[in-house]
Input
Amino acid sequence: MKTSGSKRKKRGKRKFKRSGKFFVYILECADGTYYTGYTPDIDRRLGLHNRGKGARYTRDRRPVELKWHKAYRYFKLAFLEEKRIKALTRKEKEDLIYARKPRKRRAGSRR
Output
């Protein structure tokens, strides 16, 4: 059975590594905003962001600067940490970047 359209070369399926070294990182963009991500190769990923080949968010906000990173042994832990950091407020991210203890919120107070 033939398929219509152009023929694509099948790439060998690469097995996804779930253990090794994974980094969660925070970048500061040229406009002062923060971007959080994870990667197994932080130097390569930072280069991609600065060449406009990284995340769509950082493409128009170059150059970016690495502000914080942390290594994890397992992908799942890095992924969950990235998700947690993305939910933080700007102030909480800055507390993390500059290693300040976060302030405790009073009951009923908003972010």
Observations:
- The chain has one domain: 19-97.
- The CA atoms of residues 5 and 35 lie 38 Å apart.
- The two ends are 59 Å apart (CA to CA).
